[in-house]
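User: Hey, quick favor. My workstation is busy. Could you predict this chain's structure for me?
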Amino acid sequence: MHIHETADHVSVHLTSCAPQDAATVIAALESVFAAPAAPPPRTPEHPTTPHPTPAPTVWCLTVDTAAPAAAAAEPAALSGPVVADLYGAAHPVQQVAQHLSGAFNARQQPTISGEHEIQVRLTLSPAPPVAD
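Assistant: No problem, here it is.
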């Protein structure tokens, strides 16, 4: 099933991280941005066969920035760094990058621009503890 994407949609790809860290980043995004209607994730009918060397995993989601929640980003715990590649129109991508920067320490690498879309790569790391 194909999701009809609009200019408000940002494609987010998470790599180089543990599954629980990907889940933490996804939860941080879902707390502010809606996900477009999509079918539920499918599980494989057969268990995966272990590979002699671990294969890289990419977690992908699309967020809709048209109506973000008013809540501010809450710092979230990560066990290690997460690479987040954001793809979409400039303003929505910057909205998502700003939210992730509020929830995690984020280092932005150079942006790649296209005619109508940009790509931003963020390296997310655990946010420092909030001083009381």
